[in-house]
């Protein structure tokens, strides 16, 4: 029998419950490809979802993984400006990107807080096997980044090492970007 009571006991009980729930979520996220196709992509996608659900009080009501067609359709929903839409394995001309995050800027936090309109962020999870292995690949990646930026995208690249060492830190950087200007 525990020697704690009241709010201290309630805190312990809730912590145990939430901890078990998150452990179950993490175990299932690792095995399925809902959040990405490679292990580092799944790790990053799962970290974004868990960060939004459990780590901080976000201004966004929901994170939703969508296709490009679904993203355009869902943006027309009345409550779409309160969501984050993530396209995984999105196709751009000559380039398949790991993720495109879509958020609406200039929304609610403060009057005149940012430019109204949909903002787009490309997130690349760069495993050593495919990125920066050679100078040519690094040059190709940077050229694509510049091309995407001229088309209105912002870009974050995370190395596999960064993702394995601190998945929630990487997710936090993306969520900080998403909340900038809302």
Any overview of this molecule?
With 182 residues, the protein is of the alpha/beta class. The chain contains 6 helices and 5 strands, in the order ααβαβββαβαα. A 5-stranded mixed beta sheet has the order 1-2-3-4-5. It is globular, with a radius of gyration of 19 Å. The mean pLDDT is 83.
What key phrases describe this protein's structure?
182 residues, alpha/beta, 5-stranded mixed sheet, 6 helices, 5 strands
What would the average pLDDT be, to the nearest integer? 83
The strand order across the widest sheet is 1-2-3-4-5
Helix segment tally:
6
What is the CA–CA distance across the termini? 48 Å
Order of helices and strands: HHEHEEEHEHH
Low-confidence stretches: none
Question: Regarding quaternary structure, how should these chains be classified?
Answer: single chain
Largest sheet: 5 strands, mixed
**Rg computed from alpha carbons, rounded to a whole number of angstroms:** 19 Å
Please give the share of residues in helix. Answer: 40-55%
Q: Strand fraction band? A: 15-25%
Number-wise, the strands total 5
Main structural class: alpha/beta
The coarse silhouette is globular
């Amino acid at each position: 029998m525990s020697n704690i009571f009241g709010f201290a006991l309630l805190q312990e009980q809730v912590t145990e419950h939430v901890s078990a729930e998150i452990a179950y979520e993490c175990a299932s996220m690792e095995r399925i490809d809902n959040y990405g196709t490679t292990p580092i992509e799944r790790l990053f996608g799962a970290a974004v979802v868990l960060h939004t659900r459990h780590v901080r009080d976000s201004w966004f009501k929901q994170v939703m993984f969508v296709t490009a067609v679904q993203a355009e359709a869902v943006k027309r929903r009345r409550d779409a400006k309160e969501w984050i839409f993530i396209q995984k394995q999105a196709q751009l001309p000559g380039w398949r990107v790991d993720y495109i995050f879509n958020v609406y800027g200039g929304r609610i936090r403060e009057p005149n807080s940012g430019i109204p309109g949909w903002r787009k962020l490309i997130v690349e999870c760069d495993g050593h096997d495919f990125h920066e292995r050679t100078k040519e690949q690094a040059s190709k990646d940077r050229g694509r980044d510049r091309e995407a930026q001229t088309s209105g995208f912002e870009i974050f690249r995370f190395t596999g090492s960064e993702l394995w060492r601190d998945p929630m830190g990487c997710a936090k950087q993306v969520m900080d970007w998403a909340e900038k200007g809302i």
